[in-house]
Design goal:
This protein is 37% helix and 20% strand. It has a 7-stranded mixed beta sheet, with helices on both faces. It has a 6-stranded mixed beta sheet with strand order 10-9-8-11-12-20, with helices on both faces. Strands 1-5-4 form a 3-stranded mixed beta sheet, with no helix packed on it. The longest helix is centred in the N-terminal third of the chain and has 22 residues. The radius of gyration is 23 Å and the shape is globular. The structure holds adenosine-5'-diphosphate. Adenosine-5'-diphosphate binds next to helix 7 and helix 8.
Length: 498
């Protein structure tokens, strides 16, 4: 991808636009006629007025998805043809990568370098990966007793309601849409109200790639209205949700009314453990990327740094030295590494946690304030912040902050390290830094988390399953495991007696 000059726009029409809902293959207004504004978190500028879906619109979108599933072409299409269309969509994402990256950065505030290097290539890769799975979803023959032939079929679960957050709008939508479509399901996606634009563009690209009307519908709107209507809709067979743990509980309650299948990818407070024998420079880079990549608005952010006491001072000195250079800047500038938090509300939340850390007695060793970026005085910028002397009972050690705020704790030995790491209600990810192979694997076994990274952090691949233990949710996205989320297993018995 080309490196645009600072602030150069590749979006043809930079003026605020109106965007509709995407239902049955075309853009539609909301039944109520209501719209809501989506803004650039770095400048406060209005990006678009977006149609606001209510329950009536969710009804229409579910009806379109039902039609495309029950009577329409999608599940009946030869599996290889579904795969071909998904691959065409992956190619369309690649062709429109500059445009989509800019939409993502302007809507979310993440640095354009991240959108270009990570969100866009990864989203395309997820569609490409599941394109390959479409014609490889097989049942098996079951060795039952008696004169019977029993076999299983993997059938699509039906209409999927996908509800996604604002931190990786396009990528997390792709994690759900790609496997769902590969399995033959149809989808109604409710993107986060803060960042609806990339999903709407994705739906257009899917239609252009030849995905039939009704197979992918997008209903932007608010959680308690559009989101809740989708979660409880009797025409929806499965809910795939990514978001906060509190909303995950609510979505589960709503989906339970009709016994929907459900998968939840929720919050985290992921521990990053540095043992005394670690390659310190690599671990410093890792700790830095773990919390500051994506502004720390990352479910798997390494927000709890657990450092062995014997190396604590040296380690923290190096980490602070490195992080000092990380200053927030214009997200559209190609050199910016720390962008704007997604909303003023999120910024206030993060600043509130910083205040709570201070008042509970932790030491701010770097940052700790709202940041002023010249020319972007209305932006939601927060300094990269490092707390030291954090005790396990403090709120900043227990609660998900979802911002560029690191809590540093210490440990004395392996047992204490693991106990501290697991002392959380979450279990999304964890990392270990050590040169001792046996210690690394012992830690990987002992850590209660869906992903454990050894001597690295924030690695993802479409083939690698991702999801949480405990209150970080259940179900695994990505990999072949995600196919389980979007298929039902049917067992067929045939009597072989004459
Ligand atoms: P975050 O903390 O990342 O904003 P949320 O859990 O608040 O996460 O939001 C994730 C998604 O869930 C968003 O699309 C949001 O609109 C949606 N949502 C929020 N409340 C509800 C609800 N009561 N029912 C269904 N969806 C909801």
């Amino acid at each position: 991808m080309s490196e645009a000059a600072p602030n150069t726009s590749v979006i043809a029409d930079a003026a605020p636009r109106r965007r509709g809902l995407f239902i049955g293959g075309r853009e539609e207004a909301a039944a109520s006629g209501k719209t809501f504004a989506t803004r650039d978190p770095a400048t406060g500028a209005l990006l678009a007025e977006v149609a606001e879906a209510g329950a009536a619109d969710v009804d229409r979108a579910v009806a379109a998805a039902r039609q495309a599933f029950d009577a329409g072409p999608w599940p009946a299409l030869p599996a290889r043809e579904r795969g071909r269309l998904l691959r065409r969509l992956a190619e369309a994402i690649e062709r429109h990568a500059d445009e989509l990256a800019e939409i993502e950065t302007r809507d979310n505030g993440k640095p354009i370098f991240e959108s270009r290097q990570i969100d866009l290539p990864e989203a395309a890769a997820v569609f490409d990966y599941y394109a390959g799975w479409a014609d490889k979803i097989e049942g098996s023959v079951v060795p039952v007793a008696g004169p019977y032939h029993a076999y299983t079929r993997r059938e699509p679960v039906g209409v999927v309601g996908a509800i996604t957050p604002w931190n990786f709008p396009l990528l997390l939508a792709s994690w759900k849409i790609a496997p769902a479509l590969a399995c033959g399901c149809t989808v109604v996606l409710k993107p986060a109200e803060q960042t609806p634009l990339s999903a709407l563009r994705l739906a257009e690209l899917a239609a252009e790639a030849g995905v039939p009307p009704g197979v992918l519908n997008v209903v932007p709107g608010f959680g308690p209205t559009a989101g809740a209507a989708l979660a409880r809709h009797p025409g929806v067979d499965k809910i795939a949700f990514t978001g906060s743990t509190a909303v995950g509980h609510e979505v589960m309650r709503l989906a339970a009314e009709t016994n929907k299948r459900i998968s939840l990818e929720l919050g985290g407070k992921s521990p990053n453990l540095v043992f005394p024998d670690a390659d310190l420079d690599a671990a410093v880079r890792g700790a830095y990327n773990a919390i500051f990549y994506g502004k720390g608005e990352v479910c798997a952010a390494g927000s709890r740094l657990l450092v062995a006491s014997s190396i604590h001072d040296r380690f923290l000195e190096k980490l602070v030295e490195r992080t000092r250079k990380l200053v927030p800047g214009d997200p559209m500038h190609p050199k910016t590494k720390l962008g704007a938090l997604v909303s003023a509300e999120q910024m206030e939340r993060v600043l509130g946690y910083i205040a709570s850390g201070r008042s509970e007695g932790a030491a701010v060793v770097l940052g700790g304030e709202r940041a002023a970026v010249p020319g972007l005085e209305h932006g939601n910028f927060v300094q990269a912040t490092i707390f030291d002397r954090v005790r396990p009972e403090m709120r900043i050690a227990r609660e998900e902050i979802f911002g560029p705020v690191l809590a540093t704790l210490e440990f004395h030995d392996f047992e204490e390290a693991i106990a501290r790491a697991n002392d959380t209600c979450y279990g999304l990810a964890a990392a270990v830094w050590t040169r001792d192979l046996a210690l690394a694997h012992r830690a990987a076994r002992a850590l209660k988390a869906g992903t454990v990274w050894v001597n690295t952090y924030n690695q993802y691949d479409p083939a690698a399953p991702f999801g949480g233990f405990r209150q970080s949710g259940f179900g695994r996205e990505l990999g072949k495991q995600a196919l389980d989320l979007y298929t039902e297993t049917k067992c067929v018995w045939v009597n072989l007696q004459e």
